Amino acid sequence: MDSWTIIEVELVVADYFQMLKNELIGNLYKKSECRKNLLPHLKNRSESSIEFKHQNISAVLINLGQPYIKGYLPRFNYQKILEEVVINYGYVLNNICIFA
């Protein structure tokens, strides 16, 4: 499998933050539906690879001392680019203040 492109990483991070927002404000959502909706926008990825990347994002957030999606247990073997995208995404978000 090819490495994740920056666009793919940005898409999966945006998807994760949308789910996290829903979780933090108490809205119901289905992780499986979110993964399925994301699939067409990624290059030859499986649902399990998206789930694994979501677990990596949980690990990044834990390392930053931030809340994470409880259903995505952290996997700490993530790439530096993922951490950078999560940090950048968190800082530009105006509708969820978890990096304050």
Characterization of the model:
This protein has 100 residues and is mostly helical. The chain has one domain. Helix content is 58%, strand content 0%. It contains four helices and no strands. The chain has helices spanning 6-25, 31-38, 47-63, 80-92. Helix 1 runs antiparallel to helix 2 (31-38) and helix 1 crosses helix 4 (80-92). It is globular, with a radius of gyration of 13 Å.
Number of strand elements: 0
Domain unit count: 1
Radius of gyration equals: 13 Å
Secondary-structure-based class equals mainly alpha
**Fraction of helical residues:** 55-70%
Distance between the amino and carboxyl termini: 36 Å
Shape: globular
What share of residues are in beta strands? under 5%
- Regarding quaternary structure, what we see is single chain
**Uncertain spans:** none
How would you describe this structure in keywords?
single chain, about 100 residues, mainly alpha, about 60% helix, about 0% strand
